[in-house]
Model the fold of this input.
Amino acid sequence: MHGNGAAGRTGGDAATAVAEAFRAEWAQIVATLIARTRDWDLAEECAQDAFARALETWPRDGVPDRPGAWLTTTARNRAVDRLRREAVGAEKMRQAAELSAGADADAADAAAVAHAAAEDGVPDDRLRLVFTCCHPQLPFEARVALTLRTVVGLETPEIARAFLVPEATMAQRLVRAKRRIRDARIPYEVPAREELPRRTDAVLSVVYLLYNEGYSATSGADLIRRRLGDEAVRLGRLLAELLPGEPEVLGLLALMRTHDARRAARVDEAGDFVPLEEQDRSRWDREAIAEASRLLDEAVAVERVGPYQLQAAIANVHAVAGTAAETDWALIAALYGRLAETTPSPVIELNRAVAVAMSAGPAAGLELVSQLEESGRLAGYHLLPATRADLLRRLGRRDEAAIAYAQALDLARAEPDRRYLARRLREVEEEGR
Done:
């Protein structure tokens, strides 16, 4: 099972190998066990036991040639032992027998079983896991929590910290989600082909929410929560692998990678927000931008344009501009117009107003912002008065701008946003003296 010389690895090397295996194999191992036991808690606990066992034995015995197969076999054996001890009826005994039948196979056979194609032609249990976690019958917050726990492998305290809720609250959310899956008999499956587009949208919305919360936190001390953003990108890559050629999957991955490319320039050394036009573009990751452009080209070639592709196209226009002044704002405004047609949203309309202001002047943008304010659809959203304030400042109407900045400051929850708005407020007040 171990490669030649594997036992010579240091403990640090083995620990690194375990961490790498966790990122690469957690979802597959959990998915494999759930598929065979239909017991989510058992699957997660046995997967955790397998990784704990690896931390004990790999530094001593060496890293296996096939870490994923080793971990799958170890987790499966652990599940067999648990089921045998807990067996109180025919069903538990049947599950133990089914798992035991494969427990004597070597690691290569275990890997083959774990990746075997199912009758529905889906080559990976992870896809069933993702779609089950994001089933429409589950509340949206439960989908997010369950995806982070089961697919990504985050611990409950980590998820609770990420969304600034008590650990007990998040634990209960996870318990309720699993209970709902059991009680509602939610099938552990990928939907039929004709249902796939609608259900894929539900999955993508979870991934996008995770990314947005990591990219621009809605509250708390930090603007960027790197762990959430990184895990969302990893989920996006997993979906692109499992649903090859799906244009909206590619579009979302392109969008996230483009935003990722600018991440290092979005905050200064103090952790404060840096507006797009003030960012040091030499700090943008050009390799990430190039990857995103390739993904977007691949998605658009399918000729089934959706909202994530349009958002990725908008982000790409920003990313390829050499300077802020070279940005094609007219194209961005047009893309936002099309996005508003496909996915009506007041937030999209607000972003279009900014693009119109940049291409046709602040007065034109301010008119659109006023229409949004009159509609009341963004009441309580701090970026609405913040946008109004910025346009008024550009028009030289500093007293009105100060009032709008103060309104935005009252609504903002994230500390970096509040510091930025407070600075802008001081600037317009000083300019007006």
Q: What stands out?
A: DSSP finds 20 helices and no strands in the chain. Residues 1-8, 104-123, 217-224 have pLDDT under 50 and may be disordered. The two ends are 76 Å apart (CA to CA).
